[in-house]
Design brief:
With 237 residues, the chain is of the alpha+beta class. 27% of the residues lie in helices and 36% in strands. The strands form four sheets. A seven-stranded antiparallel sheet has the order 1-12-8-16-6-4-2. Strands 3, 7, 10, 11, 13 and 14 form a six-stranded antiparallel sheet that branches. Strands 5-17 form a two-stranded antiparallel ribbon. A hairpin with a 6-residue loop joins strand 10 and strand 11.
Length: 237
């Protein structure tokens, strides 16, 4: 079987770039195998892998639980983070350019991590999420500090319809001087969703303008849903 790095490099990144520019998200199918998804979901029980556990109810984030990984990350997760990043950093820099934002991102993830650490953002933000019946996640943005990369990804570890029902991934767009638009997605087990962390550019009659976006999860009706979230910037201590 090909390695995760080989599988990711073979994906159509030109098409992904087009989707990110046009809509702020892109689904990449069949990134993880069924076994890899099962192993990652099972690892939710291995507490030595994690630095912090968050109960969503306690903080009014929704209903469910998630855990932040500690460094060093498991090799599979680290390989995904470091392989995907160079493909999307040019997209992020183009967004900054067209929106006249004075921010550019380095070409490698290692350099981005150093930038975060120079700003005292040293805690890993990769997390695994678990939802049971009635679980949901309120609309939010994952920023964690002054240095934040404008895209992130989620890997789906459970099969909709078999492992759970409901639990759709929800994105909302707030277009200036208009009502919010909801985008509802249901990727399959092993799929990867790339999406904007907090905004994307859109072209209007007078140039580009900023469309703010949030994401969340609709209530799970039955079963259990696991996902792995990879955020590229680190968090403050």
């Amino acid at each position: 079987m090909k390695s995760i790095i080989e599988r990711l490099q073979e994906k159509d990144w030109d098409q992904t770039t087009e989707h990110m520019h046009r809509q702020g998200y892109a689904v990449i199918s069949n990134v993880l195998t069924k076994k890899e998804c099962g192993d990652l979901a099972h690892s939710y029980r291995d507490n030595h892998l994690y630095r912090k556990t968050i109960s969503m109810e306690r903080y009014r984030f929704g209903a469910g639980e998630y855990k932040y990984f500690s460094y060093p990350l498991p090799s599979l997760i680290n390989d995904i983070r470091e392989t995907v990043y160079p493909h999307i950093a040019p997209i992020a820099n183009k967004w900054m350019e067209v929106l006249n934002i004075d921010q550019r991102f380095p070409a490698t993830h290692e350099a981005l991590k150093k930038l975060c650490h120079d700003h005292k953002q040293v805690q890993p933000t990769v997390l695994i999420l678990q939802y049971g019946q009635g679980g949901f996640n309120t609309l939010h943005q994952d920023l964690y500090g002054d240095i934040y990369f404008p895209m992130q990804l989620v890997l789906f570890l459970s099969e909709p319809g078999d492992d759970y029902t409901g639990g759709e991934f929800v994105l909302t767009e707030q277009i200036p001087r208009a009502q919010s638009k909801a985008i509802v997605l249901q990727p399959r087990r092993g799929d990867m969703l790339l999406f904007t962390t907090n905004f994307r550019p859109a072209k209007g009659s007078k140039g580009y303008y900023r469309v703010n976006m949030k994401h969340g999860v609709s209530p799970v009706h039955h079963g259990h849903r696991h996902t792995l979230g990879i955020i590229f910037h680190d968090a403050l201590s």
